[in-house]
Amino acid sequence: MPPRTGTFRAAAVAAALAFGAFLSAASPPAGAAAAEPAPVPDHCQGQCADILPPGENGNATLVEILGNKAFGTHPAHSDDQLDRYNGLVAGHTGLTDRKLTDFFNEASFGVAKDQVESVISPREDVTITRDRRTGVPHIKGTTRYGTEFGAGFAAGQDRLWLMDLFRHIGRGELTSFAGGALANQGLEQQFWPQAPYTEADLEAQAERIRTTEGARGEQAMADAQAYVDGINAYRDKSKKGRYFPGEYVLTGKIDAITNIGEIQPFELTDLISIASVVGGQFGGGGGGEVQAALSLLAAQEKYGVAEGTRVWESFRQREDPEAVLTVHDGTVFPYAGKPDSARGTALPDRGSVTPEPLIHDRTGSAGTGRKAPVRAPAALRPLQGMYDKGVIPEGSLPGSGDGAGKRGMSNALLVSGEHTASGNPVAVFGPQTGYFAPQLMMLQELQGPGISARGVSFAGVGMYIQMGRGQDYAWSATSAGQDITDTYAVELCEPGGGAPAKDSTHYLYRGTCTAMEKLERVNSWKPTVADSTAKGSYRMRVWRTRYGIVTHRATVDGEPVAYTSLRTTYRHEADSIIGFQLLNDPDYVKDAASFRRAASHIDYAFNWFYADSRTAAYYNSGMNPVRAADVDPALPVRAEKAYEWRGYDPAANTADHTPDAEHPQSSGQDYYISWNNRQAEGYATAGFGFGAVHRGDLLDDRVAKLVEEGGVTRASLTRAMADAALTDLRGEQVLPELLKVLRSQPVTDPEVSAAVQQLESWRASGAQRGESGEGSHRYAHADAVRIMDAWWPKLVEAEFRPGLGADLYTALTGNLATDESPSAAHGPSGAHSGSAFQYGWWGFADKDLRRVLGQPVKGPLARTYCGGGDLNSCRDALLGTLERAAAEPAAEVYPGDDSCGAGDQWCADAIIHRPLGGISQKPIHWQNRPTYQQVVEFPSHR
What we know:
- The protein has 942 residues and is α+β, with helices and mostly antiparallel strands.
- A hairpin with a 2-residue loop joins strand 3 (116-123) and strand 4.
- Helix 19 (782-804) packs across helix 20 (806-815).
- It is globular and about 75 Å long.
- The two termini are 36 Å apart.
- It is built from 24 helices and 30 strands.
- Helices cover 32% and strands 17% of the residues.
- A ten-stranded mixed sheet has the order 3-4-5-12-13-14-15-23-24-26, covered by helices on one side.
């Protein structure tokens, strides 16, 4: 097999050799190449492009890690897509179709002969060809098994360490595997309780797919096993050849000198664990009903039950009439709405809610992060402690950190052929999955019996392309987040008939006092070269009921209950494999209708988009439960049979689901946009923050204008995406109303007047966070951006807190943070993560300010808050906060972190690929843009 290594400067090689011959960069043998299979049909004809920074290669030997830390060198193909991705910031304004491949990969099938870098055959029935420009594996098999084996082998080449990390995250064993850093402790404590399983549970899920999904299910599990076999083949070869990822040495798994140690074999159940992490991050929806109940109670405490409920509902915005929609032709898809008269709602008694304890029996450094560095060989000291802040820094993954309850990301822009220059649909779309080195996904092309596609797959579950292109069609997804998770209040009991307490471990299930099932993980760790965290251990424990996992304890009407979280996809983490199998099958997907049928087999909550030469289409997937009549899905409900999901069977967590026809869907609409906004009329949102201002507006306004003008091209649609990616949502959508309030009278204070003028100039230029010149690392309107970043949280508090009161304001900000600027560290994926402006109070502020200004508002807040509804008082509040914001120095607005100095505004925003292994990458300009992105336009069809 070919080396997945790079060339070092002489100094780097010398430094490595000084540590000993065992550190030499062992390169795998080339292997014999199989005969090249015949080319497959490619109807994109050079008009498909994609990008996935920083690079395809995500494995690094110990030598390569040492070279990166000491000299900044990179393994081949580990960073060669980074500059092209970053270049679109400056290059998008002059973009043409011909220039697209300056910023994207050419994504045709196959590799031209003069672009072949290497060809290997890990088996005689498959070849893996890598291209010179990107090193992407093009896997072609003559048998189904060989194709999937090759996919697994290539995944091992490119993501072995990452896959190992994620199977241990999914199993709740990260600290035992990678070290006890506080971030590692936090990560497993957040992910494992969402999907806790025994080994038997994981095996049952695989068996269920095999035995209940017919021939497709049997084929899926055979494909998965072949994929695992391929991973293990590479695992074995790389260990014997000493070119395995160097992280295994640094975390104490393998001795660098003797090669003693083991990379544990992968099993089919590992893929279920990885699927639970991926699905939990990007395909979940709903939940959080306990937190919603607490803010409702706070509103009722302040205003009384009726008025408090009205106020709360106006902030909840389940179906805001001003919200941007993906299906905008007026079609209604009723789901999860507010019942006229709710039954079974189980609000907690005030002050009674306590979270369920997860961690027990702490020893040593558990919960403290205390360090006890090991004595490392001199040559490894530059790498000592590289995981002291965790293998995945805290909050970096969507669904982890302070924003754990908030998931979603990714965007899509599609225009139907009647509005394009060519007459064919054009699409620019992709998942926004954060920035990591290596990425969570990997690019690949799969060609074999029943499989023909190129695109991305999440590492460890790459049997099929999950988003990408086929022979004459392309597809992608955004997180949908509709409500597929409910909270039940289970009544506690004692088996002997005594009075239950809040900590009782029995509950009533359909009238019978039933024991909760205890699930536990005992993790222990000791310091290594990579993670200096001192020896420690703890026990994680969750209680599982037939209504889901216990999350809180409380009393309801004085009686003790446990609140449980039940999602439809629990125990079905990998069932979506059938949908992905179908999307990769050229004999199945032939048009928009067959695409929708394939996507309907995907159980997680996603918005799916499709384009071929004739049609652009959309479908929303997910296991939407059929709820009992008049149950309010936004709040906890009593765990009684009358309020259960229809057809609910707890044994395998099955229930009746809404028919496919009731999911939002469309074909041939003039255009589609999605940035995790509302899907359609009637489709109620699962959380707060879907109102009059949403980041989806940044796309919708631009694409609607392009469609009105006509003649849309790949380049013009990409320009619209790139322009939105640099725009501050607050500056474009809310600042005009703020300025109107401020300018309702002359601004006489010179300093405040200067700040207003700076904000006006910034807004007039497009409210962008863009450099003054390419590579300047300084924003063109740096002071205006600084003022907005300092002003927004202050103005929101001054606008709403006086009217709401401290308790209700605090409760509502617990449901929805007020801001998510690019430099914020509290968002769903932490600082430096690119994604921004998904969650915030911009919609609330916009509605409130328009009311103050006397403008029409559809779906207004129940009350007017800024200045109590008085324009002059509102203006005074805004002026006061603006004065303080304008005076706040950059060093306070941007306090700095491990990557940036205090006051460095550009760096505070910058995207930094979080290292999941030993290779780090340079910061790049902020963009609010998909991580993997396609630009496609098919001129022909089969």
